[in-house]
Amino acid sequence: MLAELIAYIRDHSAKDQPVAVLPYFSIAHFLADRHGPHGASYIIWPFAERDPRIIDAVDATGTDLVIYNFTQFPNFSPASEYAPVLHDYLVEHFETDRTFSDGAFGFKLSALHRVVRNLADRQLIEDPGTARLRTTSAGGISRRIEGPERNQYLSATTWPFREVLALRPTAAGETVLSEQLEVPPATHLRTAVGTHPDFWLQFPPTCVRFSISAVVDGERRQLFQQQLDPHQILEDRGWFDLDLPLDNHTGQRIELEFATTTALSHGQSPLMAGGVPVIRVEP
After folding, report:
1. How far is CA 62 from the centre of its chain?
2. pLDDT in tens, 12-45
3. Are 169 and 261 in contact (CB under 8 A)?
4. Is 240:226 a contact under the CB 8 Å cutoff?
5. What angle do helix axes 51-60 and 84-93 make, rounded to 10 degrees?
6. What is the pTM of this model?
7. Euclidean distance between CA atoms 216 and 221, whole angstroms
8. How many CB atoms sit inside 10 A of residue 140's CB?
């Protein structure tokens, strides 16, 4: 894993370009022969007034590559909690390109690259509180999720390193989030699916299955399905981007359904399934 990480850093940065390695994995700086953007960025201690200095240095030096280590200090809270300003900055300006894992229980890191958000993108579900939400049991019994109970199944939040809708799966059934959409020409559903890094080491291991369907006049057509098992399949760690054209539904009013299911009951966690549903109308 370490050799692959160092090779990646060297391939994606010049020797005189800074690389941010956060919150701490300074051996990568040494082995890759790359310096950090700021003296405070080599190890992120839980001290105040540090986040803005690092952010300013990342911008000022044009740092485009960040290596983020998810293996946290055992005596610290997660870096996203003690460095929230820095974490939110990374969510807004960077996205995951590749994940590196040293076996199932070893170090886990991601390489992030700076991105420019497309102004043509808009959130499909602008108000998660009004979107339809239901669960379906293994026996096919459907139940609407309403009121305060919705907070147990659906939340708009930030994960490493995306703004997401976390949709808690149902074991041996489905949790389904749906939204209606008038489909103009050249419309694409651009989204990504993944599990939170905090759940990659969940034991005993379980998997999650994502599916996206379009419903027109009561007829359901599946657009996408993918299963992730990040504990046992290291390649399933990270974000999986999708670009689904909706050309077949141009001019129609459709209902898009986002469903998650898990194999075991302890997989019924909001950290198990996250998605980024975005609509883009291509020029």
Report:
1. 24
2. 999 999 999 999 999 999 999 999 999 989 988 8
3. yes
4. yes
5. 30
6. 0.88
7. 8
8. 7
Cβ burial, residue 121 (10 Å; 0-12/13-18/19+): middle
Our measurement of the distance from residue 99's CA atom to the centroid of its chain's CA atoms, rounded to an integer in Å, reads 12
Question: Residue with structure tokens 């976390």?
Answer: 166
The count of other CB atoms within 10 Å of the CB of residue 85 is 12
CB 22 within 8 A of CB 5: no
User: Strands 187-194, 274-275: parallel, antiparallel or unpaired by DSSP?
Assistant: antiparallel
Cβ proximity of 275 and 189 under 8 Å: no
193, 205 contact by CB (below 8 A) = no
Residue 122 banded pLDDT, cuts 50, 70, 90: confident
Mean pLDDT within 53-71: 95
Q: State yes or no: cis peptide before 23, omega within 30 of 0.
A: yes
Q: Look at residues 107, 74, 79, 125 and name the one whose alpha carbon lies nearest to residue 4.
A: 107
State the Cα–Cα distance between residues 64 and 66, nearest whole angstrom. Answer: 7
CA angle 155, 160, 161 (to 5 degrees): 100
Q: Rounded to an integer, what distance in angstroms lies between the CA atom of residue 271 and that of residue 267?
A: 9
Mean pLDDT of 214-218: 90
